[in-house]
Amino acid sequence: RIPAPLCCRRASLGALPPTPVTSLCHTRLSCFLLPPVHIHTRSPSLPPPPSFHRSRSIRWQASRSPMGCFQSKPAGKPLPPDADAALPPDDSADPEAANGADGAGADGDDKDGAKRAVPVFREFGLAELRAATKGFSADLIVSESGEKAPNVVYRGRLDGGRLIAVKRFSRLSWPDPQQFLAEAAGVGKVRHKRLVNLIGCCAEGDERLLVAEYMPNDTLSKHLFHWDKQPLPWEMRLRVAHYIAQALDHCNAENRKIYHDLNAYRVLFDEEGDPRLSSFGLMKNSRDGKSYSTNLAYTPPEFLRTGRVIAESVIYSYGTVLLDLLSGKHIPPSHALDLIRGKNILLLMDSSLEGQYANEDASKLVDLASKCLQFEARDRPNIKYLLSSVGPLQKQKEVASHVLMGITKTASVLPTILSPLGKACAGMDLTAVHDILLKTGYKDDEGAENELSFQEWTQQVQEMLNTKKFGDIAFRDKDFKTAIDYYSKLVGMMSVPSATVFARRSFSYLMNGQSELALRDAMQAQVCMPEWPTAFYLQALALSKLGMETDAQDMLNDGATFEAKKQNSWRG
């Protein structure tokens, strides 16, 4: 089944008529589902572009065949000898090795048998990460303190399409690059399904960068303190407490007993809605070992006394996270303990949770938080005690996290092979895209019954051919404004639309900074040729420019699917 064109699925955007897709979509009649669009950049009658918003996820209605996770290139600089010894073995990309022995479901079982493959830890080149983050663009900052944070986190996309999170340390944090690489490689060896796994690092010049998996569904802080749809349900809060305890238990087993600055910002939600603990906290913020950047009211007492962090400090910080989960707001531990001692537990509890929990369960979690927050480190429980206390409180282990949270499950990004054009679009390499479109010419239009030379030879057709020629010359010479003018005129003259003309005008709009019009033309190209990979790749490019990364990834996957289908038909 051919995916419905973007325009037919989102007619409500107001840009295109809500013409339903019929079984004739794969025939030449599909070209007439939408009228040719007459767009002139200097025309006062320019139709309004579609209104796109980040919150409006544009999804294909058709079912997709699974294609696995994009893998980043294995190329990269060799790590120093001491760091190399800390690298995980090559089988760390194996799901069993990467994610722990059990599965990824709410109760430890993976319902569909799928496992997340994590790339082998490697050193990235600075140029690669600069390209992935569009020059460390402020628009791609995802850390909640924005540019004010001492160490900023960016969203990025690697050449192969994989989304990543890049933590950029301040220049003076790690003066010695070898020490930084060794520390990062040690953290990169710790892999688990409850962790946001570290997949690489970079230490070129003054830059010190960590690269981790990207989590698309925000932080615990956002869901607890700044929610806009629904408060985090009680059952989900219990799952957070349990999963984070599992993550800490695994770190303990890997002899990583110190976790720096554990708080609600360090817990992130993956594409399934499952909470995971950031691996960034396994590494110090600087070589001097400063471990706490949050309010001192939330730091372990021993850190305030000695400036040192011990294994029991992590338990104290876990207790502060429990307070966040119970109250839905920031409460200093000293104030919370006063409420607990005074048996004013109801004043501590988040009022939005009323009716969702049994009083006995709430009391048990409050009691656990109280134990974790003991002043003397020796009086705090160990991690095994946390697991045995929180685990039995969960009542809905079989319900998926994304269902509990009321979020739309993000489709997995699966491994696929992209053509040169697909790779260029995924990597936002506009020069390469232009070169490929030039080289391909109008070959893909052949057989679509819209080759200009087959039309009746009249003076009007001669004018049309001249218009096409001048448009192609402008496109070749990268005079994209002129190309838009000629191609717009050509679209109005042709009795049968050309997918290639729409594709070229789409790219010209992109180069002219008009991403919404570029997306519209790429959609028109797909209407003309519903299985044309180029149309999907150009939509991906335009969607990326509009900041709609999830939808862009969908387009890349669909383009690759049709490309593979075409290649298989040639072989057959």
UniProtKB/TrEMBL annotation:
Q: Which reaction does it catalyse?
A: L-seryl-[protein] + ATP = O-phospho-L-seryl-[protein] + ADP + H(+); L-threonyl-[protein] + ATP = O-phospho-L-threonyl-[protein] + ADP + H(+)
Per UniProt, which keywords does this protein have? ATP-binding, Cell membrane, Kinase, Lipoprotein, Membrane, Myristate, Nucleotide-binding, Serine/threonine-protein kinase, Transferase
Q: Under which name does UniProt file this protein?
A: non-specific serine/threonine protein kinase
What GO cellular component is one of the record's annotations?
plasma membrane
PANTHER family per the UniProt record, alphabetical: SERINE/THREONINE-PROTEIN KINASE BSK5, SERINE_THREONINE-PROTEIN KINASE BSK2
Region (Disordered) location:
66-113
PROSITE patterns under this entry?
PROTEIN_KINASE_DOM
Q: Which InterPro entries match?
A: BSK, Kinase-like_dom_sf, Prot_kinase_dom, Ser-Thr/Tyr_kinase_cat_dom, TPR-like_helical_dom_sf, TPR_BSK1_C
Composition skew (Low complexity), residue ranges = 82-101
- Any idea which GO molecular function terms this record carries? ATP binding; protein serine/threonine kinase activity
* EC number(s) on file: 2.7.11.1
Q: How does it sit in the membrane?
A: Lipid-anchor
The UniProt entry, under Pfam families, shows:
PK_Tyr_Ser-Thr, TPR_BSK1_C
All residue ranges annotated as the Protein kinase domain in the record: 139-405
Q: Which Gene3D superfamilies match?
A: Phosphorylase Kinase, domain 1, Tetratricopeptide repeat domain, Transferase(Phosphotransferase) domain 1
